[in-house]
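step=encode ok
step=design start
structure_in=
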């Protein structure tokens, strides 16, 4: 997966496989304007029979193809949300072994979910410039092999979490795979403009996994971190969808900008940004799960998020502004979770109380 969105100005992404011959022998399909699932399934069958298998030159290339199937660039941020949750749950003192096991289990679960998504979406992935270089549409990995790989990853994740963390964490991670595959990929992605709103719950599950791994239960704070990631997903994704609307339209995916247009999308982005930032404060008050350092970080980061979202609201058609918001959404979530970690550390508590005592003495 290349960071094609980092290039400016944005028109449509460049073909990602300039050195590769087209893997599918048939020409591009005409532009569909409505969702036609039968046509898409037909296309999937066509790909099944027409993809010319491309063999790897070396074992390293095989590894590389399977690695790419897992959409690896997204996984670190999922793990950062898991870690943020773990640190708060453990009040700043996370068992390093549990951390390692949970992050590894989470990685395997997310990789499994993404691999199944790649199998399911191979028809539309072939038709979109951004995704046609992926191992499956380019014929480097066969669906059957990918499925075996995905099952092995899921079994590995479940076993690791159940044995070395706890059953709740294992079940949550597994439910993340099921939700992402069935609810998002199969049910919503091709049928509803709310696909990523409801489907976004899958991406928020790693936060629950982290909390469960530490406490073997789920508290209000755990559900609030889940809600923060859940509410953050629409601004994160729709900002990107504004940039690649034409690609989604081409394959008939009803992403909000395709169906409702840019103006309606930026209004929704604005709404979700404001409630995301508001919800981050609830961790400080009334839940008291995080302290003053966290809330200062959350409000500072949130202020920038709201500002960027406001700019997009004023300039719905400006793809540069949309790209800025998308890129910032990633830094926002990363730094917010880092803020959760830093705030929870005993040394931070010590420093804050020392400063408060000094201020009190001065006053
Ligand atoms: C249903 C929910 C979501 C959808 C539909 C979505 C979709 C996407 C898409 C299409 C990309 C661009 C990938 C590419 O370069 O081709 C992307 C990038 C990214 N997403 Fe999301 N996303 C979702 C939720 C999340 C969540 C929950 C996280 C982590 C907490 C996340 C983290 C990232 C990161 C880190 C990138 C940048 C990857 C890179 O550097 O290329 N996403 N997302
Ligand atoms: C605990 C657990 C296993 C959670 C799973 C979480 C998970 C895999 C979240 C990924 C969200 C995401 C990046 C979706 C991409 O959408 P897309 O597939 O529509 O993107 P595309 O257009 O690039 O294919």
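sequence_out=
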């Amino acid at each position: 997966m290349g960071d094609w969105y980092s290039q400016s100005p944005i028109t449509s992404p460049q073909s990602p496989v300039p050195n590769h011959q087209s893997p599918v022998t048939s020409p591009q399909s005409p532009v569909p304007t409505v969702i036609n699932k039968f046509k898409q399934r037909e296309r999937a069958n066509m790909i099944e029979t027409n993809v010319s298998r491309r063999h790897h030159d070396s074992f390293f290339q095989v590894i590389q193809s399977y690695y790419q199937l897992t959409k690896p660039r997204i996984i670190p941020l999922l793990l950062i949300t898991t870690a943020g949750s773990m640190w708060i749950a453990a009040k700043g003192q996370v068992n390093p072994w549990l951390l390692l096991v949970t992050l590894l289990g989470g990685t395997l679960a997310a990789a499994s979910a993404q691999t199944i998504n790649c199998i399911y979406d191979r028809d539309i992935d072939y038709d979109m410039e951004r995704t046609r270089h992926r191992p499956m549409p380019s014929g480097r990995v066969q669906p059957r092999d990918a499925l075996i790989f995905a099952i092995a990853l899921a079994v590995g994740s479940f076993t690791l979490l159940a044995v070395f963390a706890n059953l709740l964490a294992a079940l949550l991670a597994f439910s993340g795979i099921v939700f992402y595959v069935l609810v998002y990929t199969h049910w919503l992605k091709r049928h509803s403009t709310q696909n990523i709103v409801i489907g976004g719950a899958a991406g928020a599950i790693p936060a629950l996994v982290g909390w469960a791994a530490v406490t073997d239960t789920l508290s209000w704070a755990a559900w609030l971190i889940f809600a923060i990631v859940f509410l953050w997903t629409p601004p994160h994704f729709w900002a990107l969808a504004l940039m690649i609307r034409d690609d989604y339209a081409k394959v008939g995916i009803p992403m909000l900008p395709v169906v409702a247009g840019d103006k309606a999308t930026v209004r929704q982005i604005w709404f979700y940004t404001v409630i995301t930032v508001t919800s981050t404060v609830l961790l400080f008050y009334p839940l008291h799960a995080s302290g003053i350092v966290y809330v200062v970080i959350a409000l500072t980061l949130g202020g920038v998020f709201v500002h960027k979202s406001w700019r997009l609201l004023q300039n719905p058609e400006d793809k540069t502004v949309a790209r800025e918001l998308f890129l910032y959404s990633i830094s926002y979530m990363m730094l917010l979770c880092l803020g959760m970690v830093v705030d929870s550390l005993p040394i931070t508590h010590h420093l804050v109380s020392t400063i408060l005592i000094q201020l009190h003495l001065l006053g």
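step=design ok
step=annotate ok -> Residues 9-35 have pLDDT under 50 and may be disordered.
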